[in-house]
């Protein structure tokens, strides 16, 4: 199973994103391997808001509906609170609450690979899926 981050979903959706072609290639590779993709509801909220603002409501809705094909973990209170605590302790402005939740979800699932274009995953000790 591979975790999919906002950065990958956005790059795959936006043809103007510098990582668009690479995101399409990696997604094709994941799908060809039959690898399930996991994300959490905070990623979908972040991604939906970003897509709606930059590319419009219809594209955001389309991606949010397509996300039904991902395995989705719903963030519970304890995970949220631990992510906020980590955000406070780490004090890294560029690493968001959504990132902290992603790291916690991946660790709780024993995952080591993320489909992402976000260096913070590697900084946290995860591998980036390159196909």
Task: Walk me through what this model shows.
This protein is of the alpha/beta class and 131 residues long. It has a single domain (2-128), classed as 3-Layer(aba) Sandwich (Rossmann fold). Helix content is 59%, strand content 11%. It contains seven helices and five strands. It has helices at residues 6-13, 20-32, 41-55, 57-66, 77-90, 97-108, 119-123, and strands at 2-4, 37-40, 71-73, 113-115, 127-128. It has a five-stranded parallel beta sheet with strand order 3-2-1-4-5, with helices on both faces. It is globular.
Task: Please outline the helices and strands.
Layout: E1 2-4, H1 6-13, H2 20-32, E2 37-40, H3 41-55, H4 57-66, E3 71-73, H5 77-90, H6 97-108, E4 113-115, H7 119-123, E5 127-128
Parallel strand pairs: 1-2, 1-4, 2-3, 4-5
Which key terms come to mind for this protein?
59% helix, single chain, globular, Rossmann fold, 131 residues, alpha/beta, 5-stranded parallel beta sheet
